[in-house]
Structure formats: structure tokens, C-alpha cells
Amino acid sequence: MRSPRDFYKPLAVGAPEPLREIPFPPSRMIHFFDASNEKMVARLPDTIAKADIVLGNLEDAVPVDRKEAARDGLVKVGKTIDLGDTQLWTRVNSLESPWFLDDLTTLVSEIGDVLDVVMVPKIEGPWDIHYVDRLLAQLEARAGLTKPLLVHALLETAQGVAHVEEIAAASPRMQGMSFGPADLAASRRMKTTRVGGGHPGYLSMSDPDPDNPDAPRITAQQDPWHYSIARMVDACTMNGLLPFYGPFGDIKDVAACEAQFRAAFLLGCVGSWSLHPVQIDIAKKVFSPDPAEVLFAKKVIEAIPDGRGVHMIDGKMQDDATWKQCKVMVDLAEQLAAKDPALAEAYGFESSAA
Ligand SMILES: CC(C)(COP(=O)(O)OP(=O)(O)OC[C@H]1O[C@@H](n2cnc3c(N)ncnc32)[C@H](O)[C@@H]1OP(=O)(O)O)[C@@H](O)C(=O)NCCC(=O)NCCSC(=O)C[C@H](O)C(=O)O
Ligand SMILES: [Mg+2]
Fold it and tell me: What's the CA gap between 64 and 301, in Å, rounded?
């Protein structure tokens, strides 16, 4: 563990100073694309116009014989496509893979100046972040970068979940975390074949009716991810990082995707992944606060400008703590409204977007 005095010192001579605060631009969806897929690259200008973050994926879902093409394609994207205010991220291959070193070396030296965040999969503990941290510092120094690259950990193993707080605190480069339900299910030996969402077998059941023991009993599907996502949200928030839900694999089941995203949003996640264009719109809808809630939150803040005391507003008790919840909602709404005139109108703000 580094001394607290050294925490913000660059890890290589000539590397940029670590950031004190993690930037929080609109981050409702991390849209995955494979830069070796011509159709996805052809759609990129349209995707960039719609998505808050686009991520060139190099890891799982990219076939072994296209790993280098995906990396080279991402370099080309970074050098040639105008990203406007959309962030460009990458997910590199895992640390033990034969591609990780070349992924990081190539991307930092070729497009380190336009890349915002490096997502690292299968992070198991702070030792993984320490390795990436030092290597990035060396590569940044060699490339003459002036802005540090940020690191996003993918939480998708039992060991990663067990060390989530230490991972979040491992480096000032830590930008956030995403939740990877597919690898996590495999790592835990869960008996599922899905990518996120619930399962019809994961239920709770009401007691039998004593007067009618054979009557059907009420069952309700439970959320198998609640515990781990809540831990991730706490670990991120206490360290000033941004938590994201990850993938939802049943692309056609837009209703279940929306439910999974909304559960994550309500627990504190700022966004989710989108694997298909249809999921960009779902994430945008879910991770932009509901206009009715924003209008109510504005009403509370207007009625209690100093956030103190106890008040009744629309029949509900409001105090310092509810005022803070309203502030979270209104701050997010203001941030999104600045980028999106339709949201600005729905929230009753003047839009500053052109
Ligand atoms: C899931 C897909 C393979 C589906 O692709 P496809 O069968 O081509 O779908 P459609 O025919 O509906 O596509 C319509 C058009 O849209 C384009 N498209 C599809 N996906 C994307 C995309 N992500 N970005 C841009 N454009 C996209 C198609 O090319 C079609 O175009 P056109 O023919 O011109 O109309 C595919 O969506 C896909 O590969 N998605 C990404 C998958 C991915 O990245 N997976 C890895 C992340 S999940 C994970 O790793 C698990 C996690 O780590 C964990 O452990 O939990
Ligand atoms: Mg995974």
C-alpha cells in the first residue's frame, strides 16, 4: 500500500499528475463496438451522436483471429473520427492474456491523447490495479501525454467482489467499475446460461394457506445481483468513483433489459452498457431521471432553499436528508439538460445546448 502522502504522485518520471476528482460528464451508456466489424464502424458517426460513451472492445466477443484487427481498427477510429463530446473508452484483454501488453502499449502510444478510460476485465484485487497503474504511467511518460488515462475495473469474479473496496481505493486513476454478470456467474458456479437479468427459478414463495394447503402459492422472482451491485455502488461512491451496471444479453427482451437497468439506476449506478443500438435508447430513458421526479425535487429545493428543518410538501415530510436526495436528482438533471434540449424542456430548465 502506497503512503497516503505519495498517493497523488505520478508513478513514473514524466507521467502526468493524477486527477484529484473523477470527471462526471453524461455517462448513461457505454456502447460496445468491435472496430474489426465494418458494419459497426460504418455506423459509428451515428452511434457517437446518440451515445455518451463509445467503447472499442478488444476482449470477449472479439474472436481470437480478429484481436489485432480490433486493436488496429480502434487506433484508426481514434485517429480519424470526430468524437465531439462523446467519450472514447476501450476494454483491453485480460491481464493474463497474450494480448494485454500490446493492447495497452499500442493504444497509449497511438491514441492515448484521445482515449479517456481503459476498462480492464476480470480485476481480482488491488494488485491488478497497481500493475496497470505503473505500466500506464510509464507508457504515458514515453508518449508525452499531459492528461492521465483513467482505469475502469470490471467486477466479474468472486475474488473481485470479495476485494471490491480495496480495488476502488487502489489508485487515483480509478474512474469507476462495471458489473459483469456473465463471468461472475461462471466464477461463482451459478447454474445459469444468461448475461444479466433475473431467473425464473430464483424465487421466494409464500407460506401455504392453512385453510387450503393445496391452493397455489404466490411466488416472486428475486434479484440475484442485488448484493454484489450494492457492494460495488458503496465501494465506488465512498472513493468518488462511478458505478455502472454491465451487459444485458437478451437483446430482444427490451422490457427485461429496461427493468435490469432501472434496478441499477435506483441503487445508484450512473449508467449501463449497451451491446446493440436498441439498448442505447433504453439506457438513455432509464438513466435520465423521470421528469415528474425532477419537477418534484425542484419544488422541494425551491421551498427549502437552505435544506434545513422539517416541512410538509404535497403531503410528504421533507427534511435535510430528502433535500439531499432532491439535490442529487436535480444536479443530474441539470447536467443532462445541458446536452439535451428535449430533456431541458421536460425538466423545465433553460437549455444551454446549441
Ligand atoms: C449481439 C450482436 C451480435 C447482434 O448483432 P446482429 O445479429 O448483427 O444484430 P442486428 O441484426 O439486430 O443488428 C442490426 C444492425 O445493427 C448493427 N449493430 C449491432 N450491434 C451493434 C453495435 N454494438 N454497435 C453498432 N452497430 C451494431 C448491426 O451490424 C446491424 O447493422 P446493419 O446490418 O448495417 O443494419 C451485436 O449487437 C454485438 O456483437 N454486440 C456487441 C457484443 C459485445 O460487445 N459483447 C461483449 C460485451 S458483454 C460481455 O463481455 C460480458 C461481460 O464481460 C460479463 O462477463 O458479464
Ligand atoms: Mg466478462
Answer: 54
Ligand 2 centroid–CA 84 distance in Å is 29
Using a cut of 0.80, tell me whether the model's pTM lies above it.
Answer: yes
Same domain for 318 and 238?
no
C-alpha cell, 94? 485480460
Q: How far is CA 133 from CA 1, 36, 108, 177, in A?
A: 13, 27, 13, 15
Q: Is 124 annotated among the ligand-binding residues?
A: no
Q: Which domain holds residue 328?
A: 293-347
Query: Is residue 276 located within the same domain as residue 309?
Result: no
Q: Whose CA is nearest to atom 22 of ligand 1?
A: 276
Mean per-residue pLDDT pooled into runs of 10, the chain (354 residues): 90 98 98 98 97 98 98 98 97 98 98 98 98 98 98 98 98 98 98 97 97 97 97 98 98 98 98 98 98 96 93 94 96 95 94 56
The values of phi and psi at residue 167, to 5°, are -65, -45
Q: Ligand 1 pocket, 195 CB below 6 A?
A: yes
Q: Are residues 320 and 190 in the same domain?
A: no
Does residue 354 sit within a domain? Answer: no
Note the ipTM here: 0.99
- Choose one of 29, 36, 37, 40 to mutate for the ligand 1 pocket test, by most ligand atoms within 8 angstroms of C-beta: 40
